[in-house]
Amino acid sequence: MANPMARSFLQVAASEEVAAPPLRVVQIEGLVILKIIKHCKEFSPALVTGQLLGLDVGSVLEVTNCFPFPMREEDEEIEADGANYQLEMMRCLREVNVDNNTVGWYQSTLLGSFQTVELIETFMNYQENIRRCVCIIYDPSRSNQGVLALKALKLSDSFMDLHRNNNFTGEKLREKNLTWVDIFEEIPIKVSNSALISAFMTELEADSPVSQCDYDRLQLSTTPFMERNLEFLTECMDDLSVEQQKFQFYYRNLSRQQAQQQTWLQKRRSENMSRKAAGEELLPEEDPSNPIFKPIPEPSRLDSFLITNQIANYCNQINGVAGQSFSRLYLMKALHENDKSP
Amino acid sequence: MAARDQTVLQFAPSSMSLSAKVHPVVIFNICDCYVRRPDQADRVIGTLLGSISPDGTVNIRNSYAVPHNESSDQVALDIDYHHNMLLSHQKVNPKEVIVGWYSTGFGVSGGSALIHEFYSREAPNPVHLTVDTGFRNGEASIKAFVSINLSLGDRQLAVQFQEVPLDLRMVETEQVGFDILKTTMVDKMPSDLEGMEASMERLLTLINEVYNYVDNVVDGRVTPDNNIGRFVSDTVASIPKMSPAAFDTLVNDSLQDHLLLLYLSSLTRTQLGLAEKLNTAAQIL
């Protein structure tokens, strides 16, 4: 008698895969953070990338190790080299018991200008092979201000569906209620360290109560950073206005085309009326060969969304730095007053 | 004549003052490899990569573990693996060369001499780093050694491992924030303002300490130390002397600049919101 509790193999195989719980947290090891910082800083201001290795456990994505990618020349032959390098590294790391599982990639950025079409393409490429992948963005220029500028991103599901169908018309976007905010999802990061390294760090901690990052944070000069931020911001605004002009052009063309269609239709109808009066054949009311009936392609809104994302990023950064500067300025003021008072 | 006939145990003098500097990535890497070592291995051995600066300081920047087999009298290192990893690492960073090797465990053991000999064929004057993961003396001891040849007249007798000063200052770790890397689990990365708050609190603590110290000295509770006194007066004097009016203008100008930037950014965001509504809400007739 078959045990009613035990399911046959066929049943298990036939049952649907339980949907994976949504990714809630990315857990990074301290080692990975240090490696990413080292790699990005060494090559800054050039932009570099690398691969993340780890485990996918429930709603937590653990990143336990990483390795950098060599700088890629613009050469076709190097493609195969790149793949070889990756395989070689993964094989070697597996021999020392490192998790051999790719969970994403990391890249460095300059002041947060990372939302590009290439990023989305890379995401889609990774998504085909790995169920859940994440991209970690590190900003070395912001980290000079004492902030650890590390972000974990992934594409939202609704956006991925749209992109797969390559369908970015206004209709579809309204249907799915997708705005530029919904393209990227930021996932909170948790940091974990093994007990051994935590013991080492506690021992090796310098004795001074104030550390280098405090010096960086309390620096008064933020002008170069703000200047560059504003420069990028204005460039992006220019790009955005170009995109908007494209849309205006499209709508103008569309309405002109519709007006032309109407006049043509009127003419046809009046002609038909006269023909009916004369007893001749009626001409069809549609003429697909006429160029005014050719549908004009609607420009994709993806670019304008990405630019909007970048602009929002720059604005956020400006807000953050300005807020910090206020605190510093008031601190200076208080210090100066204390100095002056008897 | 007699003096020359005497055989003297000679130490080859170290030609330059060698010291080593270790970056925190290396320590993290070593600990991680140790935690992941195969069950039968007692310790982990690996290669150190880095650069040698012109004044003789060895800058240890990166490392990778090399699988090895160790028995009571023999050590076997996977040399192919070592070369493959070296090539891969050099593709990313061609400036990093082999500067030595590391092993976990306290002190230097017998097999180490053989491994050191192997590495001295790879790099001139390799540095041997030992990382005591067992915390044998109740403290973390990370030591660096170089090998000195002991020769008796013309014959080479043995190799002595001599300790070199090791600089363990962890500047990058401080930048990341020790709090993040010290505990076993950090639930949330600190935001900008929280970090700012922490820094300011630390500054306040420092100022309070100095204040208390000066008070104690004035009241006679603590013997004054001239050096500290000079430090304090230098620090206070380093605040630039400006008339209050000039200082106020400076601060207010800065404040206004920042307010302007904030205004610009909120204006931009409003513009974005409007543009987005217009773009997607437009209906095609």
TrEMBL record, chain A:
Major location category of this protein: cytoplasm
Pfam families on file: eIF3h_C (PF19445), JAB (PF01398)
GO BP of this protein: formation of cytoplasmic translation initiation complex
Gene3D superfamilies from the UniProt entry: Cytidine Deaminase, domain 2
Region described as Disordered: spans on this chain: 262-295
Listed PANTHER family: EUKARYOTIC TRANSLATION INITIATION FACTOR 3 -RELATED
Name of this chain's protein: Eukaryotic translation initiation factor 3 subunit H
CDD domains named among the record's database cross-references: MPN_eIF3h
Keywords: Cytoplasm, Initiation factor, Protein biosynthesis
Subunit architecture: Component of the eukaryotic translation initiation factor 3 (eIF-3) complex.
Compositionally biased region (Basic and acidic residues): 268-279
Cell compartments where the protein resides: Cytoplasm
Family indicated by similarity: Belongs to the eIF-3 subunit H family.
Gene Ontology molecular functions: metallopeptidase activity; translation initiation factor activity
GO cellular component terms listed in the entry, alphabetical order: eukaryotic 43S preinitiation complex; eukaryotic 48S preinitiation complex; eukaryotic translation initiation factor 3 complex
Record lineage: Eukaryota, Viridiplantae, Streptophyta, Embryophyta, Tracheophyta
Domain called MPN: residue spans: 26-159
Function: Component of the eukaryotic translation initiation factor 3 (eIF-3) complex, which is involved in protein synthesis of a specialized repertoire of mRNAs and, together with other initiation factors, stimulates binding of mRNA and methionyl-tRNAi to the 40S ribosome. The eIF-3 complex specifically targets and initiates translation of a subset of mRNAs involved in cell proliferation.
TrEMBL record, chain B:
Annotated localization: Cytoplasm
UniProt keyword annotation of Protein biosynthesis present: yes
Keywords linked to the UniProt accession: Cytoplasm, Initiation factor, Protein biosynthesis
Name of one Pfam family that matches: MitMem_reg
Keyword Nucleotide-binding: no
GO BP terms, alphabetized: formation of cytoplasmic translation initiation complex
Domain of life: Eukaryota
GO molecular function, one term: translation initiation factor activity
UniProt domain MPN: residue ranges: 20-151
Entry GO terms, CC: eukaryotic 43S preinitiation complex; eukaryotic 48S preinitiation complex; eukaryotic translation initiation factor 3 complex, eIF3m
Subunit composition and interactions: Component of the eukaryotic translation initiation factor 3 (eIF-3) complex.
Function: Component of the eukaryotic translation initiation factor 3 (eIF-3) complex, which is involved in protein synthesis of a specialized repertoire of mRNAs and, together with other initiation factors, stimulates binding of mRNA and methionyl-tRNAi to the 40S ribosome. The eIF-3 complex specifically targets and initiates translation of a subset of mRNAs involved in cell proliferation.
UniProt record similarity statement: Belongs to the eIF-3 subunit F family.
PANTHER family: EUKARYOTIC TRANSLATION INITIATION FACTOR 3 SUBUNIT F (PTHR10540:SF6), EUKARYOTIC TRANSLATION INITIATION FACTOR 3 SUBUNIT F-RELATED (PTHR10540)
Name of the protein described by the UniProt record: Eukaryotic translation initiation factor 3 subunit F
Lineage, opening ranks: Eukaryota, Viridiplantae, Streptophyta, Embryophyta, Tracheophyta
